[in-house]
Design goal:
By secondary structure, this protein is an all-alpha fold. The chain contains 15 helices and two strands. The chain is elongated. Belongs to the CDC37 family.
């Protein structure tokens, strides 16, 4: 059997190597010196491999952020906006997750001379400063295209360096594998058998079916019949009135929260106080706070509070910028850039605040002109409201029983017909009738159009659900208003005769 000794060719030197040395040189000393040299070269090679692998990770993260920045800039080519402003916004959009902004710590012995390791945001900021300087020197007419070109050049340089790094790393790893060291010794095969403990049976082996929840409909009859359906929109009469007072819904108007209003009181430009407030109340970075402050700014502008309106715009955009950067690191990066003297970020942010306020100011002026030209538009719409003719008379509301209670066939048929009319009403109107309060019914009628309300009042009369006298005053019409004014002025009903004016007793 032929023995293959080729694997020992990778040995660099051995204590019993058959080597020739100078007669004046001790063989053992020569071998120890040679071994020391080999160990030094090996340690240096391994240090280079570790350093290159770490730099490869850093370069990959930097290349990814440069590509994201280029993509964001290209997406804004169609925007007719300031190129410097677009560059700042693109940098914010491409910042990524703030948790990934800090590069991984270097291995021991790698870049120990650097006390403070820069973050990816700092690297990108330095790159953009250099790019902006180069674009300013080139005096290009299309600054946005010049920014894209210069950033692409820097990206190509980093990619070229990354290619050289990969080649050097492959060469060093090949050289490392060419030699046998004690680090290459490993266990070729190992086996152990550990019997796992039997799982403990659970106390309950049967699973009970989960109870299913069903929705109980307040008005099941309306699912089969809806005589109050409008023919123009297909929406049931009074459907808009089926919203309970005080309930939250997606259609609620956006308004500034107390926290947002407190943040808006901080003077514009006092970034130290703003940073302290955000650090103490990070929930102010929510998107609803931005929307609420912008609504507050718009309302203040309508009321003529121009200074407060611009203050709200400034704080709203400050929240928006910090939220887009993301997290506490993003907030710190924003305030660091915005407070740096003569930094472009300050100018871009101020321009954005001014342009946003101008749009709000213009729109508020247009609305003011519209209101001045058409003052009736702000007075509301005509409504149907029910009032008893006699203030001392109480209008009783009677709900038809679900099951007829009368033995008379005619009355029984009338109760069934009245119940059908009641079931056809929207749930909001049904609840108002069930409350027995005329004010609740008027609230529902106020949410309807005049035609819908008249239709509902007619059906209430047909079903006998309102014990109304013949004269019902509609307080929104001219006749109704005059009648109510007469009642309030005199304290008497129209046609009321004093006792002294009555004829005496004929007997």
């Amino acid at each position: 059997m032929v023995v293959d000794y080729s694997k020992w060719d990778a040995l660099e030197i051995s204590d019993d190597s058959d080597i020739e040395v100078h007669p004046n040189v001790d063989k053992k000393s020569f071998i120890r010196a040679k071994q020391a040299q080999i160990h030094q070269e090996r340690d240096r090679r391994r240090h280079q491999i570790t350093t290159l692998k770490y730099e490869r990770i850093i370069n990959d993260g930097l290349i990814m952020r440069i590509d994201n920045l280029l993509t964001a800039l290209k997406s804004h080519k169609a925007d007719a906006d300031d190129s410097d402003k677009l560059l700042f916004r693109s940098m914010i959009e491409s910042a990524g997750d703030p948790a990934d902004d800090q590069p991984p710590p270097p291995p021991p012995g790698v870049h120990d001379q650097m006390k403070e390791k820069p973050t990816y945001s700092q690297m990108m900021g330095s790159l953009l400063d250099q790019v902006k300087k180069e674009v300013d020197e080139s005096k290009s007419e299309n600054r946005l295209e010049a920014f894209i070109t210069e950033i692409r050049k820097h990206g190509d340089r980093v990619k070229a360096l990354q290619g050289e790094l990969y080649a050097k790393l492959a060469e060093l790893e090949k050289e490392e594998k060419r030699h046998i060291t004690s680090d290459d010794i490993h266990t070729g095969f190992d086996y152990s058998n550990v019997k796992a403990a039997a799982p403990i049976p659970s106390s309950s082996t049967t699973s009970k079916p989960k109870p299913q929840s069903t929705v109980e409909v307040l008005n099941p009859g309306a699912l089969q019949r809806d005589p109050l359906t409008r023919t123009d929109t297909g929406q049931s009469s009074g459907a808009d009135a089926d919203i309970e007072e005080g309930t939250n819904s997606d259609g609620d108007e956006t308004e500034a929260s107390p926290l947002g209003k407190e943040f808006a009181k901080i003077k514009a430009g006092d970034y130290k106080a703003c940073l302290a407030f955000i650090s103490a109340h990070p929930e102010v970075l929510a998107e609803r706070e931005t929307d609420g402050l912008l609504v507050e700014a718009f309302n203040s502008e309508l009321d003529g509070k121009h200074k407060h309106a611009k203050q709200c715009v400034h704080q709203a955009l400050l929240i928006q910028y910090c939220r887009q950067l993301g997290g506490r690191d993003g907030v710190g990066l924003f305030f660091k850039r915005i407070t740096t003297k003569d930094h472009q970020a300050n100018k871009l942010f101020t321009d954005d605040v001014d342009s946003t306020y101008r749009r709000i100011h213009t729109r508020a002026a247009e609305i003011a002109e519209e209101r001045a030209a058409n003052p009736q538009s702000a007075e509301g719409v005509e409504q149907i409201q029910l009032h008893a003719v006699d203030p001392n008379t109480k209008i009783n509301i009677s709900i038809p029983p679900a099951t007829p209670t009368s033995d008379d066939p005619a009355e029984r048929a009338g109760q069934e017909e009245a119940r059908k009319v009641f079931d056809a009403f929207p749930p909001g109107l049904q609840r108002a009738l069930e409350s027995g309060s005329l004010d609740e019914v008027n609230k529902v009628l106020a949410k309807m159009s005049v035609e819908e309300a008249e239709e509902v009042v007619g059906k209430l009369g047909e079903g006998g659900m309102l014990s109304l006298e013949q004269g019902v005053i509609d307080a929104t019409t001219e006749e109704g208003k005059k009648a109510m004014e007469e009642i309030e002025r005199s304290g008497r009903m129209p046609g009321f005769v004093e006792e002294e004016q009555l004829a005496g007793d004929p007997e």
